[in-house]
Amino acid sequence: MKSCNRKTRKFALKGAAMAFTVIAITAITGSAFAQDGIEGIEEANQKVRSYFAAGTNLMYAVGAILGLIGAVKVYQKWNAGDQDTGKVAAAWFGSCIFLVVVATVIQSFFGIS
């Protein structure tokens, strides 16, 4: 039994020494590549702001596709003589307006140009 405990203890000490070595190496090399927190936040801010124009254009494209799909669905309901054509038209039109308004409001609220 004692030999088993000795082996377990020896293995645990080797594991702890290896973990300490990995942490020490990570700390030494990590400090060489570390940057100031403010610089990192500013870099992330600039990257997100640079992606916003493309995201806005994507949102407008999705709105245009939804508008076309909605127009076809409303046209089909109108030709079929359904009574709820007005509700369906308002729902599709409202969703397209919502996409455009959200993109514009976010852009003006956060001052992204």
Q: State Rg.
A: 30 Å
Distance between the termini: 73 Å
Q: State which percent range the strand residues make up.
A: under 5%
Mean pLDDT: 78
Helix content: over 70%
Order of helices and strands: HHH
Shape field: elongated
Q: Got a strand count?
A: 0
The DSSP helix count reads 3
Number of domains: 2
Structural class label: mainly alpha
Give a quick account of the main beta sheet: strands, pairing sense, barrel closure. Answer: none
Unreliable spans: none
What secondary-structure arrangement, pairings included, does this model have?
Elements: H1 2-33, H2 37-80, H3 85-109
Describe the 3D structure.
With 113 residues, the chain is an all-alpha fold. It folds into 2 domains: 1-34; 37-113. The protein is 89% helix and 0% strand. The protein contains 3 helices and no strands. The model has no long low-confidence stretch (mean pLDDT 78).
What labels describe this entry?
single chain; 113 residues; mainly alpha; 2 domains; 3 helices; 0% strand; elongated
Provide a short characterization of the protein structure:
The protein has 113 residues and is an all-alpha fold. Helices cover 89% and strands 0% of the residues.
